[in-house]
Model the fold of this input.
Amino acid sequence: MDRKLDEYRMLDELKTYTRSLGINARKSSRVLAGVDSARKNDALNAIADAILKGQSELMNENQKDLQAGRQNNLQAALMDRLQLTESRIQDMVCGLREVAALADPVGEISGLVYRPSGIQVGHMRVPIGVVAIIYESRPNVTADAAALCLKSGNASILRGGSEAIFSNRAIATCIAQGLKQVELPETCIQIVENTDRAVVGELITLPEFIDVIVPRGGKGLIERISQDARVPVIKHLDGICHVYIDDRADLQKAVRVAYNAKTQRYGTCNTMETLLVAEKLAKIILPQLVREFQQAGVEIRGCEKTCAIIEESKPATEEDWQSEYLAPILSIRVVDTLDAAIEHINEYGSAHTDSIVTEDYSRARRFLREVDSSSVMVNTSTRFADGFEYGLGAEIGISTDKLHARGPVGLEGLTSMKYVVLGDGHIRQ
Done:
């Protein structure tokens, strides 16, 4: 009986804690709605300054997370995302400053037209309100998400994984310092310090306080949130990205693009997982390309035609075409036409990012038009599918949904539109 009482008491405390996050966020969102761009930019630059000043402390706290990750046998991809290096901290700082330098979309009025009645009707871009981001590893997401939410006038609740708790707390301290410096409520950006997984279950059922949930992490986390949430979700489940080398491709470009798309970094959602090669070019380009992949330690899994050309490759299974490896593993399929490549991508892809390498303008245009993904590319690496690279300053996540936001979600993706109507004493007859 005592154990049951303790469980009920803990659950009540958890609900109270989570609800307080929501109440504070809603109040702060109303404050942020009236804050001008200059003050938001000052806050972002103050946070960047605090992170730079606290770099040593950040790296020390990150080492605690890395040590715990090693003890818990955290996957290599997650360990890579978890690590904070001097370069990654500098990237966080640059991201904050770049967001500060971006045009503020809030309050922008567009599409004003006169109606026959004499009124003007248009749209104004406004904050969504309260955004909750739930993510694993990647402590840099804490800074990126905070920056984008603040600049777009949204209060944010940031719930990182327990594996990054020390890093996230250290970043939260820097964020609080920056907000305090410009006299904004610290509750504009709240870091969830309770590592109990039940907190997530509570957050996603608070539509009265939270306007949208953005999950970033493994497929299991995103599926769970999508199924159980009572709040709208912006998400992507997988990053099964393709590069198709057309038979009218420049060979040098093709090798460079495909190699970078796979090996520049393995544990990211925009890394190439399947390479498609036109049959006319396969015997020419695959030996050279696979040799480079193998030198980088990439395991090759190929279709029957690939295995006939590359004897060292393992036979690919149906599961391979549907796999996001997040590891030095690559599946290769030889296809006879552009139609076959597009068909493969639309069947097995995850609507994330896909690229064609070709010198044929018409084929490139067809690929752009017919591949149903959130980012479609020509003659470039899939690794560019990233908010920073797109000039968004950073990204809150990548959406493969088709409503509201699609692709890397930056400032505009964190705003909504409302109608504005201008008149001069007009009345409806």
The first strand starts at residue 109 and ends at 114. The chain has a mean pLDDT of 93. DSSP finds 15 helices and 16 strands in the chain.
